[in-house]
Amino acid sequence: MRDNEVAPGAVSPGSVETPDGNVPRTPAAREFLIEVACRSASAALLGIFAYGAIRQWLAAPARITLVLLVVTAFVTVGLSLFSKVPARRDWTPMAFLFSVGGTYYFLAVQLTPGTHLIPEWAGATLQVLGLVWQLFAKASLRRAFGILPANRGVVSGGAYRFMRHPMYLGYFLTDIGFLLVNFDVRNVIVYGAQFALQAGRIWREERLLSDDERYRAYRQRVRYRVLPGLF
């Protein structure tokens, strides 16, 4: 028998046998169950939101921005269901608040029609531009993206040649496009909170990644986080 094998019926190193003879779940098993639970909850929330939004759209088919809001939610949350599990993730309460609030904000958006500050087509154009940029950024990352701040490897190609957090520029464009066509007090509050949460999320991501020497070198080469010349 090789040293790293365990005889049949034996308890593996690091495990403790319970009085009934069962071996409790290992940390890896707990992580797996947490991962499955989180992704299942994300899929359920996304489905509930999509159902409500599509019902609103069927009542007013000219509201293209509403359909694009659903598409944006699927791009943001839906694709994260298939992201790879990182080696290190930030589970601190502050990071959790920023990430979950900044991701699932669409659940609080007022879906009924609001004031048009710009035409429907103009808002939809901003949303499409934001979606295209998000997809470009996600394609640059491949499967190295998710909801919580994590080190999934340092990416410096594609959209990441221009800014350190290009996906957030896509989020901003899609959010502004919807808000300006569906303007009301509730949505102003929701999107104002969303922008603040995303700024906090960027801060937490950079704090986590700064431990990686490769990211520190990348940060020296690419100066701006989201908006070249500004931020």
How does the SSE layout of this entry go?
Layout lengths: L26 H33 L4 H15 L9 E2 L3 H11 L16 H22 L8 E2 L14 H16 L3 H25 L3 H9 L10
Antiparallel strand pairs: 1-2
Helix pairs in contact: 1-2, 2-4, 2-5, 3-6, 4-5, 5-6
Compact description:
The protein has 231 residues and is mostly helical. It is built from seven helices and two strands, in the order ααβααβααα. Strands 1-2 form a two-stranded antiparallel ribbon.
Whole-angstrom Rg: 21 Å
Distance between the termini: 59 Å
Largest sheet geometry: 2 strands, antiparallel
- Compute the average pLDDT: 82
Give the neighbour order of strands across the main sheet. Answer: 1-2
Helicity, in percent?
55-70%
- Name the structural class: mainly alpha
Number of helical elements: 7
N-to-C SSE string, H for helix and E for strand? HHEHHEHHH
- What fraction of residues sit in β-strands? under 5%
Based on Cα principal axes, name the global outline: globular
Number of strands: 2
- Unreliable residue runs: 1-24
